[in-house]
């Protein structure tokens, strides 16, 4: 149907868009309700509205299709370009936020990212996780507490971070020792843990694929500010997966995956010189909350 020669009818294409949207909904309704149908309907409604608003030319539409095709070609078992696309559009962080809402005072969850390993052996309190000794020394002390500020004893604290060049151990297995900058600690009776490591550096997301090219073409950045990843699990609490960022990193306000939150700022202190490289210290507190079912039960009782 041509929207440009119909006299009194609207000529901006919105009538055609609305008709298509209704027709799609009518066909879906014949198939009966389902979650997939609900998602398809919501997606198609918004796609039709988007196309109507943007009115892409055929060439522009082909460029968009070519881009999505290239994203698919870049994705394989080692590299997930689709996840990268979701990350840089803020979708991954939004899905994480919506699925892991926590009560006030609890440390927010963030995405785990692609570099987590679950097979790191337990590490003794105070031990160094820098297995190659490269970088500026960093002493981390921390405490795992509940919503009342009471220490959580026996919690498992998994930690992983990039090296001083912004690279993870499993990105360059030939250059870094196995489990470099990874540890697994158990909190003491007061919920405390501590370890030695090196100060991590921020890094950039891959720029060599279609997603990196898109971000760069848009004039946006691929940088991630320096951070340390944590995963904390303990009986009776919801597992927390989060980052602690270096609040002094110049990229702190433009994390490419939109993961920075005020509660996740870490303040690194420079320690007095001892003749060697610059040394740093970081003290942090991570607050756990009960699992969702337990929270609902407590709320129902109030
Ligand atoms: Fe990371």
From TrEMBL:
Gene3D superfamilies from the UniProt entry: Aromatic compound dioxygenase
Domain of life: Bacteria
Pfam families xref list: Dioxygenase_C, Dioxygenase_N
InterPro entries: Catechol_dOase_N, Intradiol_dOase_C, Intradiol_dOase_core, Intradiol_RC_Dioxygenase
GO biological process: catechol-containing compound metabolic process
Gene Ontology terms for molecular function: catechol 1,2-dioxygenase activity; ferric iron binding
Alphabetically ordered keywords of this record: Dioxygenase, Iron, Metal-binding, Oxidoreductase
Intradiol ring-cleavage dioxygenases domain residues: 140-168
The protein's required cofactors: Fe(3+)
PANTHER family, per database record: DIOXYGENASE, PUTATIVE (AFU_ORTHOLOGUE AFUA_2G02910)-RELATED, INTRADIOL RING-CLEAVAGE DIOXYGENASES DOMAIN-CONTAINING PROTEIN-RELATED
Family statement: Belongs to the intradiol ring-cleavage dioxygenase family.
The protein's name in its UniProt record: Protocatechuate 3,4-dioxygenase beta subunit
Lineage: Bacteria, Pseudomonadati, Pseudomonadota, Alphaproteobacteria, Hyphomicrobiales
């Amino acid at each position: 149907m041509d929207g440009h020669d119909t006299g009194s009818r609207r000529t901006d294409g919105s009538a055609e868009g609305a008709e298509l949207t209704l027709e799609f909904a009518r066909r879906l309704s014949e198939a009966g309700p389902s979650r997939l149908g609900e998602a398809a309907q919501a997606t198609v409604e918004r796609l039709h509205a988007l196309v109507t608003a943007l009115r892409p030319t055929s060439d522009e539409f082909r460029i968009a299709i070519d881009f999505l095709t290239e994203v698919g070609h870049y994705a394989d078992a080692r590299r997930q370009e689709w996840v990268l696309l979701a990350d840089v559009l803020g979708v991954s962080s939004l899905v994480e936020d919506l699925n892991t809402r926590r009560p006030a005072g609890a440390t927010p969850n963030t995405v785990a990212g692609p570099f987590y390993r679950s097979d790191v052996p337990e590490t003794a309190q105070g031990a160094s996780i820098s297995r190659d000794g490269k970088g500026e020394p960093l002493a981390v002390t921390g405490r795992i507490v509940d919503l009342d500020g009471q220490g959580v004893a026996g919690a498992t604290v998994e930690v992983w971070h990039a090296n001083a060049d912004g690279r993870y151990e499993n990105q360059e297995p030939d250059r870094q020792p196995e489990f470099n900058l990874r540890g697994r600690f158990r909190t003491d009776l007061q919920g405390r843990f501590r370890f030695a490591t090196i100060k991590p550096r921020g890094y950039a997301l891959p720029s060599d694929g279609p997603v990196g090219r898109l971000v760069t073409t848009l004039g946006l950045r691929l940088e991630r500010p320096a951070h340390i990843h944590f995963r904390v699990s303990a009986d009776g609490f919801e597992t927390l997966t989060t980052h602690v960022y270096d609040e002094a990193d110049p990229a702190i306000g433009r994390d490419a995956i939109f993961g920075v939150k005020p509660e996740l700022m870490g303040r690194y202190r420079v320690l007095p010189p001892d003749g060697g490289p610059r040394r740093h210290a970081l003290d942090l507190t991570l607050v756990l909350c009960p699992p969702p079912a337990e929270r609902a039960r407590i709320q129902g009782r109030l």
